[in-house]
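Case study B.
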Amino acid sequence: MTATAPTIEVLRQHLIDPEICIRCNTCEETCPVDAVTHDSRNYVVDAAKCNFCNDCISPCPTGAIDNWRQVDRAAPYTLAEQLSWDSLPVQQALAAGTSAEMPTDVARITAVATAGQGGDVIPPWSAAQPCVNLYTVDRPAIATVSGNRRLTADGATSDIRHLVLDFGGAAFPVLEGQTIGILPPGVDAGGKPHRLRLYSVASPRDGERPRYNNLSLTVKRVTADHDGAPVAGVASNYLCDLNKGDEVRVVGPYGTTFLMPNHPGSSLLMVCTGTGSAPMRAMTERRRRRVALREGGTLMLFFGARSPGELPYFGPLQKLPGEFIDVNFAFSRVPGERRQYVQDRIRARGDDVARLLGDDNCYIYICGLKGMEKGVDEAFRDACRNHGKDWDALLPALRAQGRYHVETY
Amino acid sequence: MAIDYTEKIPNNVDLAGNRTLQRALEHWQPEFLNWWADMGPEGTGQADVYLRTAVSVEPKGWAHFDYVNMRDYRWGIFLTPAEAGRQVNFGAHKGEPAWQEVPGEYRSNLRRLIVTQGDTEPASVEQQRHLGLTCPSLYDLRNLFQVNVEEGRHLWAMVYLLHAYFGRDGREEAEALLERRSGDADNPRILGAFNEKTPDWLSFFMFTFFTDRDGKYQLCSLAESGFDPLARTCRFMLTEEAHHMFVGESGIARVVQRSCEAMLQHRTDDPARIRALGVIDLPTVQRYLNFHFSVTMDLFGADVSSNAATFYSTGLKGRYDETKLADDHLLVGATYPVLEVRDGKLASVEAPALNALNEKLRDDYIRDAAAGVERWNKVIDKAGVPFRLKVPHKAFNRKIGPLAAARIDPDGNVVSAAEWAASVDRWLPSAEDRAFVASLMGRVAEPGRFANWIAPPARGINNQPVDFEYVRFN
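Model:
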């Protein structure tokens, strides 16, 4: 925070936990000032009306009523936001101009995505200062599509695309590892505007093309839900179908911790699957553009996909010299070959992995499907055990040093 | 107004100021205690239970938590404070001051409404009396007892109205409430669902989720009554009813969570393997859900009902959230869709809204219940298990009303008797399902321990830890 940052007047906002609430209406019945209301989904508290009399607390049979978040008094969670929640947002840091104003959707998605790292972490000490939340849902940036090409092979089952967005005259500074929000046009079945979707930036801070005000995204067309039932992902299909020249509403940027170190000699250990490669591409590309500076440090990448044809950026990755980056592919669906997952490759490279985990200058990044978390964790544990290290003791230290970052979905 | 627990019958209705009524209730009290001893929860003899007791009806007072010896529990009479200038808000008497005494012409209908509501309260205690022997944890045992004592208090609430406002008829009805028995062939409880057994905890959770939710909707409708003492009584009962639904909703959520955990851990969705792991497979949960939902559908009464129309027109029983609805509150000329079987299919036909009030309340209920089921689906989604629970069609497995004559599957298709017989074990719990669930029911009564088939709750009661000693056996 800078010395000129405006001070925030903090409000302890009364909220109801939608995961525990059973919608019994007792609170609404009890409230003497009609601050509690509901729709068919949630019970909510109007911050402008609640007078903290606490009459509603003891009658609540579940304890859902007894929840509080410190917020900027000027911008408490609105009723509309509360009505859209599936769970309470995590407490946001109250720094001016930063995450205090972060949209709840972003907080919610981020909380889920970073759950695997076991709580809040700090960024690497040498990370650049990120800009966040420059553009909001009410005031989005308008970007123009300047490229949209398919990354996966023609015969591949998934359609993953490399999308380039140009911001023209609008400032949209991002760092590698940050995300941006896309606002798909139109409304959902309930008549509400579609929620924003977050995408990791796949290009380095100076743009997909240096000195152009653009950035790239890696977008997979969603055609099935988590259960495998056919469903067309609203935002991904919208993005994948965009043509050059189309305009897109963008909010953000977001993310203050999943950032790369900048000090010479720092190393990156990256593990990803599918479109989880986007931030890895951004960081790798940042390093590649600075190779001539001979800053040192090593890059090690574990990258999983079903087959080479399904792996975004497979071609360009293969062309990178081995002395620049140590790339390890794991393919789980290559006919005639044993199924390989990233954790198998990590185990196979256990010596080098253990060395990097123990190196104070190495920063670890995991991004991709939630399902990979457990396997990676176990592989790290094995690698440590084989080298006389205790992963359970090491992990908290990695977190405390801002060296361990997870974003999974 | 604080409640004086040194009084024989704690109350906030100035019982001491009406000696006749006080004596009548003091006469009924030992009969109630005998009934409680005979039919109340089994095996509670010496237990101290961490219960919520109302010490006043003000918001700060009615949720007082402490250990109470079950034998010393004091059931009392509590009404929500009177609202000055309250009116009859619907029907022919709309706009008149709310009645503080029973209007003579509506006496028998009002008595019938109160008796029918009152009868469900002891009935559910009777249905649940054996569950304490198979509790999955002290936390759950405590919740069972809380539900039971509050059902007992709700009986008191209705008996107070009968004694206070219906003279001799009322006293006789109050006695009959203690004489009927759930499931008794000769003298059963009035409503069908309250004669079904609640043999295991899965049934108990389903019952508290679905059937007590019917209670919520009935109480909400009665809380709109033009008869002010009934409205105020039901209003206060609603605050307690909420806990019962919490027990059901969180109970099933925990069952489902545990099942999903076992499925993921052992990478299986095969019901036989899941059962072998000692947890309840989700299709069985769905069948129990189908059963309790459909039985509860019948509690709302016939789809087209002249009684319902009369109760409404005469200002005795309103709609859910009556005063929040924006219409004439008379329902003159209005219609409402009800279902009938036509040409081998369910068809929606418009009935006079006054006659379709049961159906409207049923539909209000279904929306609420379905939203709760979605909460369970969130637990399943969160675990990443590809399964969804859903409420069956409202016409499924009906025993009351015109739909009782048809056989309707859970999706709302009319099926033949042969199709029904061939599939009923996929739709409703079979004897084998019930035997399996019963086989899991073993008593766990150490603080912090939970039966294998259910996950611990997310948080304890009154912010106590989950491993708190919620029941002390002395």
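Chain A touches chain B through 25 residues (CB under 8 Å). The remaining cases will be described in the next quarterly update.
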